[in-house]
Fold this protein.
Amino acid sequence: MGWPFGDDRAAMRILNEIQRVMRLIMLLRRQRGCKGLKSGEGGLMVVLWNSKESYRVDHCRPLLDVSGAPMGTDLVFGSIAAAGPWCEGFATGNLKPGFTDLIQKLFPSEDQGPEPDQEELCGFTHMHGPIHLLISFQVKVAKQFDRQEWPFHIEAFLHKLSLTNARVKIHFSCKSYQKRLQRIFSGKIQCKLTLKDQWSTFLDVTSSKPGVSVGERPWCHGGHPVPGERVSLSIPPAAMERGLYGELSLQPVALLAPCVLQYPNLATRLTHIQVEVYGPSNVPVASPTDFLQQLSVHLNCEELGIDGILRWNDPTDLQPRGGATLPVEAETGPEGGRSLASVEQSLTLLLFLHHMDPFTSELYDVIATEELLEHHLEAILTNNRQAVTAALQREIKSILNAHRRRSKASERICSAFEVISSSALSIVSSSSNLDFRAACLSNMRVRDTHGLSQALREAQVRVTSWKFVPKARCYPVPQEDTPTRTEM
Amino acid sequence: METGQQEQFAEIDKLRDELLTNIKCDVEPPKQLDSREVLTRIENVILGMVATLSKDEAPVLVLPSRSDWANVSFDSAVGLQMIAGSSVTTVRSDCPLSVKKFAQIFKILSIIYKLVQSNSYATKRDIYYNDTQLFGYQRAVDCIVDDISCMLQVPRRTLHVLATSKGFLCGDLSYLEGDGSRVNCLSSSAAVPVSSNVAGIKNIVSSAKFVLIVEKDATFQRLIDDDFCSKLCPCIMITGKGFPDVNSRLMVRKLWDTLQIPIFALVDADPHGIEIMCIYKYGSAMSFEAHSLTVPSVRWMGLLPSDLQRLRVPQDMLIPLTQRDESKLHSLLRRPYLASQPSWQKEMDLMRQNKVKAEIQSLSAIGPDFLSKVYLPNKLRYGGWI
């Protein structure tokens, strides 16, 4: 599945460069044995800009457009800088001699580009300290590459990256002719996740407010990731022929947001399931997978307790690459006020790939293997369709258990409310005690028993839906505010 | 013959005189509640719910805990009584686990309200069939009616909910039912069921010298077959067929209030039988209306643990106490009323010591009619009760 907009390969190249740098950083960190809390903090800056230029492809013949006229091409320049404790000591000490060679191999000189503005770098270093790694590259793109959408895909990728690297502040800046896009990704609420045989990672579990109906009530500002069981994956022959060996597995981590644990009676409605895949170095996969998009067909919604049908997004819709968004189409049913208040939730499934090959230890080879893995990801997932689908079904069902319980509890409460209201109303209506009747009506601020009936029901729903039970594991306040997206 | 009869009942008459002397005049029965008061108490519950909701708080029902012994005190003249301000259980309307019970209570309150208002009656079974889906089981209705009785602090009968009687009567007794029908236990060849509206009974006529409470229906039927009521005439026999229902207990109390004759209990020599006897005498979890349900003057006639040795009941008729029996015996010995019954304590200690129990039927091993021809007549003649 390719991008329908702009130069597909060029945009993919940009993403690949960013991926490569990130893989390098993550693997270097592991090599250095960075485990401390502080060592995970720092900044990552991704700056992209393009310049208009008309030139020949191979210095012999020009690029031609559909009419046969010579076509100008643009260059997109990119720089990725890393600073802070998380990448300290990369180019120093014992790493330095081999490090330079490694950089040369990963980023050949013909692909290297100019460095960004010093002004851009100053702001970054002022915040995070000296830069420990700076890679600059350039990518040739067709003139028509000046589209609105390609920064969206980069931005989406960086957002996914920040989800699993919450302690790293990611600064993204994109200058495209008259437009400038700046964004900072930072985890407000972070949660440390330690998976078996894998390095700890800090997830950004920041959660949005559960709808306007919550009002001024307290709410949990973060989510609570739930690791699932690891699934072993077999490597298809085609991938093995290309050099992909070793043990491969996949571990899902589910995150339901916003968290409503503190409101045990609040009904929830699942709006969509977001699936993202991360490579062994914890870098998001950028290649699209039909397998994930088609998950909606293979998952059993009824068993999952989802009130609706899982769809896949229209391919013509603009969607980030690498993952899948499966919206839940609510089933039409009888309208009614016989329900408790509800909030919408989304489920994010982070699929972490884990690869172990004892014969691959050199950093360059590890990075190459990971790129190979991503290249064959579709085939791998398809080859293990049954196991992966069953595992995801299990995890989703498990995480939605609470949702199903709420649903049942909500039905039970609503059904009981009908009886309570009608019984109370029956007594009030048939009572000959005027003081009693007047007191009931006046308490609920209504004029007659009809109004009383409505008022009792509404009050019951309001009081019961928002019953608050504080939980120690929930996040009562946000940790810090970050600037929102700006466009100039 | 008449002299023989006089001798037969000499000890009973003596006991009766003693009981009449000891009746305390200063124990006043509780004030009878009228319908308006019951309706007001129900209205207060509804108003409380409405007021709580109007403050955006979840309504909660507070029920005195009927099963907690800490909520009970003992008065030798009355029996067990509920202590005011005792431990409670709460039923929340905002909790999925308890909201159904909350709804059930409100539903039954609304039914009771209508019954009291219209001065009509319904059985617990009728209430259950009103909404079987809501209640689920008959037992849920039974428990909630008792809970409401406790919560409103009113006797169950004022709720106009009738329990199905399971007890039976026979002997020298006649009376008028609430609906005007005449009941004559003497002329009936079979036992007469205890009325489901004991409070409505009027014009009780009897020349009985005593009332015999029989624990089990099997023993009751055996005594009827042996024509016990004719042989030991005049007397009244009643059975609750095991754990007594409220109507059977009300009937025993009514007989005491009206006839003021000795009441004896004939139960198995086991902890379960002793507990049943204690319920007639001192009451149970329905302790807030002890005045109408207990007869503290009940005497334990048999089967006593000491009778087993004295009568040399065959060993193969004796049953070893189970773990549960020992546990119940231990619990009974700790009850507040046992302190005032040293002779009962002695019998129970003997049972604990010997670690055996026996049913009344074990007496048939001595002789087929031993119970009705020898055991009971001798007990009555010679005052063999405690």
User: Anything to note?
Assistant: Residues 401-430 of chain A form the longest helix (30 residues). Chain A touches chain B at residues 265, 408-409, 412-413, 415-417, 419-420, 422-424, 426-428, 430-431, 433, 436, 439-440, 443-445, 456, 459-460, 462-464, 467 (CB under 8 Å). The longest strand of chain A covers residues 342-356. Chain A is about 35% helix and 25% strand.
